[in-house]
Amino acid sequence: MLIRYKKGYEKIAMGLLSFMPNEKDLKKLQQTMKQYEGDDKWQLYLWKEEDITGLIGVVIDDDIIEVQHISVNPSHRCQGIGKNMVRSLKQLHEQKKVVPNEHTSSFFEKCGIADEEESGT
């Protein structure tokens, strides 16, 4: 289940974000968290089943939602969590188009999410 980020989840969110290749540096990671906390267009969601195992960060602009970050705890990878997060995001914002940025496009391609978007599924 996709849940909105709250300040109480900061350490978990930072841990998941740190798995993104461009978020390895602590200062960069703190800047990114500040962006999500301070800008209404930047929204962070966590994936929670029993535990929080994934994170998806987006920028919402008019009719487009651009996925900035997508990360799954390494011990929970290859279980469809990333794909489920994108699908849930699409359901949450049915009227908007969900697209990757340059850092998340390879994930979309690998999972066939871009193909789903084109076929309307």
Task: Please describe what this structure looks like.
This protein has 121 residues and is α+β, with helices and mostly antiparallel strands. It has one domain: Aminopeptidase (3-Layer(aba) Sandwich). It is built from 5 helices and 5 strands. The protein has a 5-stranded mixed beta sheet, with helices on both faces. Helix 3 links the parallel strand 4 and strand 5. The radius of gyration is 13 Å and the shape is globular. The two termini are 19 Å apart. The C terminus is likely disordered.
Secondary structure blueprint with pairings:
Blueprint: E1 2-4, H1 10-17, H2 26-38, E2 42-48, E3 52-61, E4 64-72, H3 81-92, E5 97-100, H4 105-111, H5 113-119
Keywords: Acyltransferase, Transferase
Pfam family, one: Acetyltransf_1
Organism: Siminovitchia thermophila
Question: Short description, anyone?
Answer:
The chain is an alpha+beta fold. Helices cover 39% and strands 27% of the residues. It has one domain (2-119): Gcn5-related N-acetyltransferase (GNAT) (Aminopeptidase, 3-Layer(aba) Sandwich), CATH 3.40.630.30.
